[in-house]
From TrEMBL:
Gene3D superfamilies: Protein tyrosine phosphatase superfamily (3.90.190.10). It comes from the Bacteria. GO terms for molecular function: phosphatase activity. Signal peptide: none annotated. Residues 105-147 form the Tyrosine specific protein phosphatases domain. PROSITE patterns: TYR_PHOSPHATASE_1, TYR_PHOSPHATASE_2. SUPFAM superfamilies: (Phosphotyrosine protein) phosphatases II. Belongs to the protein-tyrosine phosphatase family. This is Tyrosine specific protein phosphatases domain-containing protein.
Amino acid sequence: MIRHFWFRGLLPLVAASAAFMIYLGILQVSGNFHEVIAGQLYRSSQPSDEQLADYVKSSGIRTIINLRGENENSGWYRDETATAATLGVQHIDFPMSARKRLGAERVAQLVQIMRDAPKPILIHCKSGSDRTGLASAIYVYRVAGLDEETAEHQLSIWFGHLSIPYLSSAYAMDRSWNDIEHGTDAATNLSDAPAQVI
């Protein structure tokens, strides 16, 4: 009797976990593509050539900000830059690590890049969850001037960002966001953070 009760109590947790894993799988299969602010900013995981062409056609993307950084030795990078050039889309490499806090200078440089880039912008990393979530939150808060809660939603489980303090490798993104929220990221020097425009 007790074993049956314990199993029945555990079943909803197992079902919820399975549903969440299916949801995360759907995000990745679909490219984790989402509109952040219509006509201004879109986000995704690493797009295929076909997805990129579709995003440009359907959303009018004029700039790609690649948060994975320049990687000439990888097929995905060569394909992406070639497709962007063919489509007449500006390509900007802004390397970030999901495991490292984004310093004040880097935040300021990313804000400037996003302000100046032709819009709409597509921001992506590998999964479109952690680095892309932070960059999207920064755009919503610092570029679009919306409230913190609206911005913070971009760095959430709904886009695949799962962070456990001090245990998750992506927790650095949450710490970076907390610095931005509390104004402890005030930047004065933009020279230390190279971005590459192709």
